[in-house]
Amino acid sequence: MPTNLIPAFRLLNIDQRHTPAILRLLTAHELTHAWQHQVVDFQKFDRIANLDEKLAYAAAIEGHAVFVQQQIAEELGLQIPQAELLRFLSAESVVFREPLLEIIKNINNVQDEKRYLEGQKFIQYHHEQGGNDRVWDILARPPVKTAMIFHPETYSPTQAQETDYTALFEDINKTYSGSDWNSENTEIGEMTLRSLLMALDKNDCEEMVSNVSRVQNFSLRKNENEHKKLFAMVVILKDNLFINKGVKLLGQRVQKMFEALQGSAIVSLQDFLMEDVPGIQADSAVKVSFK
Amino acid sequence: MIIHFGDFIKTLPKQDEAIMYIGKGNVIIGISSSDMNLTDEDMLNMAKNIFDRYELIQAAKQ
Q: Which residue ranges make up each domain of chain A?
């Protein structure tokens, strides 16, 4: 048994009487991965370069293991240990007193939670549609976007022809080109977007995600000076009508994270000011500056 | 030390750099920087350039 499990269970107030049953379910989960390994070409995972596609594949694989684990729990009457194990996998399970650790945990856990629990719902949906044959077919030809995990009816094993937005940052990239700069220009999928928005209230997060069509992210770092960085993100909405609310929510997201950090013992946060940006031709603009 | 969007824990030695979200039409641009000696005007020009590029991409799709 992994030695970190017992302290983790204790932290979550998981009754020790459930430990043997939870271990059986964890074994079922890991044996499912061994089973997948015999049937599915896992090397395909290493060949995927696109982050969102990789996350979607991981969600299908983990979701299948949680799905099998759930079936076994029901078969053996282990629903309570299974519920405890799912609580173990969920983002709200542990609360850190240090705000910085809490924020980092939430960002990481939102992705973990989505991978396991939304992955399970994705597999459950396809199992209901076509049984185990369909599930194994999907594992062999996994979804290519994390949005498909959240909307299983949109599953496809092939990338649709979509507009390439990498050129959005071409001029900025040229300005800072050279071997001493490191740049990344990637699309952000739904799973990563949800973890970026984790500071928002649940309803606001859902509203934002449902109004977003695409997100392209650009980051630039100076190799020899870790402080020199530039980030640019382009959020393309489905509708112009959401523009003011969208800007407001993204500003709120920053504000909420900063406010959450006020009591931190690790970081000292400068006072910040949130204001409208004057003198720009735009529908809506906010600026967070530091006093 | 502060938090930047897009990349979470970053140091910010200079206090004159900001985080901006600018929305126009159906596009929101978020820009933040650290120790790049960028003024507000520089950041707004970058946003304008990205909006222009977006229009070019959309026009090419027609």
A: 5-154, 166-290
Closest among A6, A11, A36, A44 to A22, alpha carbons compared: A6
Q: Does residue A48 sit at the B interface (CB-CB below 8 Å)?
A: no
- Give the pairing type, strands B2-4 and A225-237: unpaired
SS3 content of chain B, % helix, strand, coil (to 5): 35, 35, 30
CA distance A47 to chain B (A): 25
Contacts A217 to B, Cβ<8 Å: 6
DSSP A257-268: HHHHTTT-SS--
Residues 9-38 (B) with a CB less than 8 A from some CB of A: 9-13, 15-36, 38
Q: What is the pLDDT of residues A150-176, one digit of tens each?
A: 999 999 999 888 899 999 999 988 888
Q: Which of A79, A59, A60 is nearest to A69 (CA)?
A: A79
Q: If DSSP codes are grouped into helix, strand and coil, which group holds residue A279?
A: coil
Q: How confident is the model at residue A256 (pLDDT cuts 50, 70, 90)?
A: confident
Question: Across the interface, do B4 and A289 touch by the CB < 8 Å criterion?
Answer: no
Helix, coil or strand: residue A103: helix
CB contact under 8 Å between A243 and B50, yes or no, is: no
Residue A265 sits at φ, ψ, to 5 deg, of -95, -10
Instruction: Give how many domains chain B has, as a whole number.
Output: 1
Domain coverage including residue B50: 2-61
Radius of gyration of chain B (CA): 14
CB within 8 Å: B5 and A196? yes
The pTM for the full model equals: 0.83
CA distances for A234 relative to A47, A281, B10, angstroms: 27, 17, 20
The residue among A234, A266, A268 with the most chain B CBs within 10 A of its CB, best to mutate, is A234
* Contact flag A285-B23 (C-beta cutoff 8 Å): yes
Q: What is the pLDDT of residue A64?
A: 97
DSSP sequence for A245-259:
HHHHHHHHHHHHHHH
